[in-house]
Write a structure and sequence with these properties.
single chain, mainly beta, Thrombin, subunit H, Pdz3 Domain, six-stranded antiparallel barrel, 3 helices, 10% helix, 38% strand, globular
Length: 301
């Protein structure tokens, strides 16, 4: 089969010419066939051999040496190259390149606000969906990075793990996670910014993970004021000082410490971002380059 003639609208990221999604672009989808009875949607990426999916709870993707991708009636042998246990996100590599996939505009950073109107995309369904907020834990179990909490209007059969969430402008805002909600009619979604981070870091380092910047704040404080800068850390190298109040990161305003923590979760290791701080009565913009590690938060005395 000549896959370059296949018109499936890919729902992810960053490196190709962007285009809005339209439900009439294709009636087919790419899926992962986990078992004879279990399949879920998968997202093509600009790397012609990489695809992103979410493993259902009943599946252990690390037990399979080969994973089958299906495009219509065609089957493509593939393998797992990364599995995020926390969010059950899988990065799949096909054994052959698959070309001709359209890449739409990709919504990244920061996370969308409550009230944002989306829809679940799946052939045969445009399930109305609304962002209800951000979630940092479920039933007391914290997430490794924040998820979106969404209200889903359509039947559960259209809300499989990995199903894309699209905004009215055709941007990808996230994919549905394999995390059950405690509220009927709600679900959780992995933000597109997290997928952006995964693909960018994995392409560059063959790994992905949290980053370290070396800033310490008062636990439970609301104001993002620095109380300590770790010696030799990225923040130290950037010139951030104790007493600085973080005003913006990467051009995005920081309203409080919770939002700053969320932004740090989404920074890409090795990518330099502008950080604007208030030092005394003067605003100063500095260059911060995060590195792989865990951020440090001090507990209140």
């Amino acid at each position: 089969m000549d896959f370059s003639t296949f018109r499936y609208f890919a729902l992810i990221l960053l490196f190709s010419v962007s285009a809005p999604l339209s439900a009439d672009e294709s009636e087919k989808e790419v899926i992962i066939q986990w078992s004879r009875s279990t399949s879920t949607p998968v997202l093509p990426t600009p790397n012609e051999r990489w695809f992103i999916g979410v493993a259902p709870k009943a599946i252990n993707p690390t037990e399979n040496s080969e994973i089958t991708l299906k495009i219509g009636a065609d089957e493509i042998s593939s393998r797992l190259i990364h599995f995020d246990q926390a969010h059950r996100v899988c990065l799949i590599e096909s054994f052959v390149p698959i070309t001709g996939l359209t890449v739409p505009e990709f919504a990244t950073f920061p996370l969308p606000d409550a009230g944002e109107k989306l829809h679940c995309w799946k052939p045969g369904s445009s399930c109305p969906t609304t962002v209800a907020g951000k979630e940092y834990s479920v039933r007391g179990e914290p997430f490794s990075s924040p998820l979106l909490r969404v209200r889903v209007a359509d039947a559960a059969e259209f809300c499989l793990p990995g199903t894309p969430l699209i905004c009215s402008q055709g941007k990808l805002f996230g994919i549905l996670a394999e995390v059950s909600s405690t509220v009927e009619g709600e679900a959780h979604a992995i933000p597109a910014s997290c997928l952006h981070k995964l693909l960018t870091e994995f392409a560059r380092y063959h790994r992905t993970g949290k980053v370290r910047v070396g800033l310490v704040f008062e636990d439970k404080a609301q104001t993002p004021q620095v109380i300590e800068v770790r010696t030799g850390s990225p923040a130290d190298a950037a010139g951030i000082e104790p007493g600085d109040v973080i005003l913006s990161v990467g051009g995005h305003e920081v309203p409080d410490l919770d939002e700053l923590t969320q932004m740090i979760h989404l920074l890409i290791a090795g990518d330099t971002v502008d950080v604007t701080v208030l030092r005394g009565l003067k605003e100063t913009t500095l260059k911060l380059t995060p590195e792989f590690a865990e951020p440090v938060v001090a507990e209140a005395p």
